[in-house]
Fold this sequence. Notes:
Blueprint: H1 4-10, H2 18-26, H3 33-43, H4 50-62, E1 64-67, H5 75-86, E2 100-103, H6 108-114, E3 121-126, H7 136-148, E4 153-157, H8 160-164, H9 168-182, E5 186-190, H10 199-212, E6 216-218, H11 230-247, E7 252-254, H12 262-275, E8 288-290, H13 292-306
Parallel strand pairs: 1-2, 1-8, 2-3, 3-4, 4-5, 5-6, 6-7
Helix pairs in contact: 3-11, 4-12, 4-13, 7-9, 9-10, 10-11, 11-12
Amino acid sequence: MPTTASAASAFADVTASDSALRRFLHGLPGVDAVGLEARAASLGTRSIKTTAKAYAIDLAISMIDLTTLEGADTPGKVRALAAKAVNPDPTDRTTPATAAVCVYPDMVATAKAALKGSAVKVASVATAFPAGRAALDVKLADTRDAVAAGADEIDMVIDRGAFLSGKYLKVYEEIQAVKEASGEARLKVIFETGELSTYDNIRRASWLGMMAGADFIKTSTGKVAVNATPANTLLMLEAVRDFRAQTGVQIGVKPAGGIRTTKDAVKFLVLVNETVGEDWLDNHWFRFGASSLLNDLLMQRQKLATGRYSGPDYVTVD
């Protein structure tokens, strides 16, 4: 299967200069905002049957990057989150584990030790998350520290100031450098779509990230007012679909921030199924950046099993 490295080499001419990269990105088809939002809204009205809902809930749980990214994070909180990731519902061992636990670089070693022996990955935000306002050598050191501590995945933020100023090659080269610093860890590239202003910019950022070697493209940090929406996620799903059609390389998608309920999660899974199909309905290729979402999924899961809601006290508060 083609790799992200082979995809990057396929775009060598396009990325040879700032002007060539600008011509390519601005030559991408413009986004029909009205059509995009209408399709996202239409797909969001799809209903699913009880058996399909049970499958969707378990799938959504398995796709969560259970996240704590607060200044008040402690080793104890990270260990508790790791325990919840491995065994989300201690009363029902059939509940799937989450995909990953996502923490700051200084908490990676704690998370790695707590998750030892499980299949749950350790993801770490890096590159001066969430603002991305740091020199490249600082961003690379941040990344290397996280990988050295055991991170399986790196979630980096792009320099939105550079992107919005049209300095596309600078953003491209930073992503490439972080990809190299990540080594074997998979790289998720965060665009902060709420700061990119237009759908055209989101499409351009998606292609820029994929061409530079991203293993995942991710909507948001969860730290701004507008995070993942059905419309911006649909647009990114269309981008990974078209990128695979052109290069043969499959890239993952991670909406993050603002996805709190089972109904929300199901809407996003419908988007995935209807836009890119079953190949992406797996936690290797689709993730939810969330924490509170898991609690609602667990309550809905028990409702399907027992016929009654247990209430929020049934689940641990993160």
